[in-house]
Structure prediction request, 419 residues.
Amino acid sequence: MAHFDSILITYHNKDRILFQIYAEFFRLMGIYITEDILYDQKIQAVDIHWNEMYFSFHYKIRNTSKMNGIGSEAEVKEQLTVLKEELKAHIHTDAFFECYDDICNIFCENQLFRASAILQYYKSGSEKTLTAGEQFEHAADSLTQLLNKKNRYLENRYARYASLYCKQKANSARYICKQRVIYYVDKLASQGLALCKEFDGFSNAWVLLGLICEKSKDFLPETINAYQRAVQMTGYQPYASSIYYLLGKCYEFVDDTISIRAAKEYENAYKCMKKYRNIYKMAISYNYKNEWEEAVHYFYECLQFLKWKDTFLDPIEQEYYFKVNTHLSYYYLRQENFCDAIKYAKRALELYQKLKDGIETENPETAFYRSFFGKDAGQYIHLALKKMNEQQTNQYLSVAYLELQMQEEAVKNLAVLES
Prediction:
């Protein structure tokens, strides 16, 4: 095998933290990740049979570390060392293992597993976002020093990718916080294009180039071109789903709506891999066309995917759960089915309230935050709550109560809105 390009990771949802550590490390080195979750419920989840020919390797997590959360730097390093030994039995790519230990050290020292998650989960300006960006900036400095010290790494695509990836992430944090990026986009784009040209067939480098360029409106054509080049190389493989999704977002931005071409890319993402955000975009695409029955079909499918994860949902999954239930409440208001409008509004608000309660008292809905963020969990729960439009959902609920002449409930709910 010439290169280690992609990996399918199978794991139980209870081992999600360990999966997250592995996944973020692989992403740092330019390797595509596809997750296959083994659900613990009695309900049979989606029957997915991945064709292992799509992937460089299929890795099954067997968590023997008893990690209930992200541990210390030493514990994370130990897990990645164990992973390396297991990979060596199956992956025969010298370039990957040549830089593994050095990149592992930088990954752990800068706690990039946590920084990556913060930038993934919180797309709004906050101190936490800026701190995560600074961690990537420090990692980028360390990688630059490493490339200068070990010249052979200049010919190593994994090391080169990691350096550029950290710079892009540092820029992303500042962009989210509406601050000037630390690395000039044009210079970073030049480095990204050089990486694409020097390592033929490295499709993930084209994705990275797109992520670099999308930080500037002036580079929008280059962004779209980079993503298009990537999907031309990957085709309809499962891990290409995220690239089609990114293309859809580009077209949605250009057309200022979910246009025909944006909807087509979201459909491509859905066909590659049915994950909740792809399903949600399918629903929204039909929603924009006022084809509500189709939209509702996909909203239900999205909810089903999130339910299979039980209550161990991350902040983005909870945001989607809230949004989907709110959309369904609105739909049933339009249909004058006020009982179902109330049902779905209350489901969304129930999650919201449980998150609020979980700031002070542990509950299943905040388990992910406590596992991932430890003593800082409350601060991250606050950030998650800001992304949920409680006011709008309460308005739908009040209207439904009034239409059913449930004046007492409507008054109580309006009091909540006014408080």
In short: Residues 206 and 229 are 7 Å apart (CA to CA). The longest strand covers residues 6-12. Strands lie at 6-12, 32-38, 57-60.
